[in-house]
Design a protein that fits this description.
Number of helices: 7
Strand order of the largest sheet: 5-6-3-1-7-8-9
Radius of gyration: 17 Å
Shape: globular
Number of strands: 9
Oligomer: single chain
Distance between the termini: 48 Å
Order of helices and strands: EHEHEEHEEHEHEEHH
Strand content: 15-25%
Largest sheet: 7 strands, mixed
Length: 206
Amino acid sequence: MNAQEAQNIKWSENIIIVDGDYIDRVAFDLIVNFERMLNRRIPAADFSQWAVDIALDGQLKPGNHETQVVLLHDRKNPKLENFTPADYEKELNGQAFKDAQLGEFIINSIATGDETAEKYTVLLDLLKTVLNHGEVKRIMIVPNAEDNHLISTLRTTLRDVDDELKHITVFAMQPLEGGNFKQQILGYSLLNAMGISSSEIERKIK
């Protein structure tokens, strides 16, 4: 899917918009840190499990839902280095999987990075598109939370959204100040998708 096609497709009730380069970088940092802490090899994150965890953290209740996952990535990065499956075009774009608890997840990827489609701009345009679609009820956004200008623009974009009509959750590694949206910590879903449990961490800390 390209940025233009995003304007014209039929959207699901539940949308997850992801900066793929950002989650890959965070996943790498977590793998390095937890291999040291737990003294074992940490596998690449299971992408399907991670998407399910994001939906659960976004308060999606069990049911036969349809959830669309849109992965934005720089054109120069054709695959995720710390997730499996990893190749945007060959393994992720246009694929779908069924979760026993939450229903179907449909994955699309959009390569960004040319003059007309910087990832920052594509993410904001995509968000505005789904905000204007009545059928979209739940939006989960995983932006580059270290980009202060982007986060500030997100706050402005979401300021007047009616939370009775749209349930919006923004994911970051640290709590964000203000904003007309729910927040969740990104790290929990990534750790779970890597097979790291809180009980294992607690045993090592003691």
